[in-house]
Amino acid sequence: MIDEHGPAKNMAVKTIPLAEPGPNDVRVRQTAIGFNFIDVYQRSGAYRLSLPSPIGHEAAGVIEAVGSDVTDLKVGMRVAYMNAGLGAYTDMRNVSADKLVPLPDNVSDEQAAATIFKGMTAQYLLKHTCPVQPGDMVIVHAAAGGVGQILSGWAKALGAFVVGTAGSDEKCAIARAAGCDIAINYHSENWVEKLLEATEGRKARVVYDSVGKHTFLHSLDLTQPFGMVVLYGAASGPAPEIAPEILNKKGCLFLTRPSVFPHNADPERFRANAADLFDAIGRGFVKVQIGARFALEDAPAAHELAEGRSSSGAILLVP
Ligand SMILES: NC(=O)c1ccc[n+]([C@@H]2O[C@H](COP(=O)([O-])OP(=O)(O)OC[C@H]3O[C@@H](n4cnc5c(N)ncnc54)[C@H](OP(=O)(O)O)[C@@H]3O)[C@@H](O)[C@H]2O)c1
């Protein structure tokens, strides 16, 4: 939990008694927790929380008890969640039953905790925000990161031509292994020109931009007329403000700033999206790459690893 926003060391382990699950709740004994970059924004105060606050959005585990009105979930079932309110950084918690999805046999608890938040993000970005078609050129910024790798591999499996960016040559190699046809180091000089040289001047039908401040204006320049810039994060800081007229000048572009939570707020839609993700995992479209594991009480070290930009793939916390 955090009592105050600030650096990773502000997180503290607390012991809090757990009530019996309410009529529509389920008690989950958690076996794996997924780290997500939003945890950093919320811990640091880039996104303000009402304090003191628990932290974390995503975990998998086993049902230990069910409330009196819960009919479709049973004790012993393996489940995961990504939109059940803050508090995933824990060994045990009560979760509203309609926020849980049962896990199929081919998805382990660790795989689920490593993918349910990031994979559901890739799912809505590729299927709902800008449905990607075979032959589309897609740019994925931070393509070696957690969401970035899933997005790149899944877009490739959908038939897109995928161009990734990342912050080092090593990360570019990871991005290519994840599915990018081309990967450009955006810390190198003139990286925008290098990208356009590599694509022979072709621009993207959609740019998925989670980096924000350092990439956003370039994203507008790398999008083809009538294409879409999807700003879905701010890892380098908030994107600069722009006048709407710039979208006209850059080629009648579409701009959106979506979030995974509204896309999965409706329980039926959440389970349908999760079924699509599990299907993609089963077909090998989504590969789960676990980059690092930490004990739950070492969550500060996990945050420092992510903020230091030396991680690739998913980071897990193990209770
Ligand atoms: N809107 C939504 O629905 C939604 C949902 C989930 C995640 N997201 C966003 O998607 C992004 C990826 O999330 P993730 O959890 O998978 O994290 P991640 O990609 O594993 O980590 C963030 C990546 O951003 C890049 N980055 C660029 N500037 C950075 C900076 N100043 N500090 C740290 N990293 C920086 C780093 O890659 P390089 O070193 O290669 O630059 C880093 O690997 C995040 O921005 C997150 O907020 C949005």
UniProtKB/TrEMBL annotation:
Q: Which keywords does this chain's UniProt record carry? A: Metal-binding, NADP, Oxidoreductase, Zinc
**In what residue span(s) does the Enoyl reductase (ER) domain sit?**
6-317
| Alphabetical list of SMART domains matching this protein | PKS_ER
The cross-references to Gene3D superfamilies, in alphabetical order and at most eight, read: Medium-chain alcohol dehydrogenases, catalytic domain (3.90.180.10), NAD(P)-binding Rossmann-like Domain (3.40.50.720)
Task: Tell me where on the tree of life, at the top rank, the source sits.
Answer: Bacteria
Query: Which InterPro entries does this entry report, sorted A to Z?
Result: ADH-like_C, ADH-like_N, ADH_Zn_CS, ER, GroES-like_sf, NAD(P)-bd_dom_sf, QOR-like
The cofactor(s) it depends on are: Zn(2+)
Record keyword Endoplasmic reticulum present: no
- Family under the similarity heading: Belongs to the zinc-containing alcohol dehydrogenase family.
Instruction: Name it.
Output: Quinone oxidoreductase
Species whose genome carries this gene = Thalassospira marina
